[in-house]
Amino acid sequence: MAIVDEIFKENLKEILKQEWEIDNRAKWKDGTPVKTKRIFGVVNKYDLSKEFPILTLRKHNIKSLFKEISWIYQKNQTM
Fold it and tell me: Mean pLDDT, to the nearest integer, of 46-75?
């Protein structure tokens, strides 16, 4: 398992520890309020000399990943 997977799992554990928050602005179709769990200010830093930070716990569309990386690279070239 990759380091990024371990960090992802730890973040999920922290989120699950939180209490439910009720959002009075948002409602489901049946009229019940939306409940959320969240944590703020999470910053994950990765050492690229050890491994590339790609999550391996979930499936990814590789074609879309390369398109996004290409798009980011092209935008940086125009600045």
Answer: 84
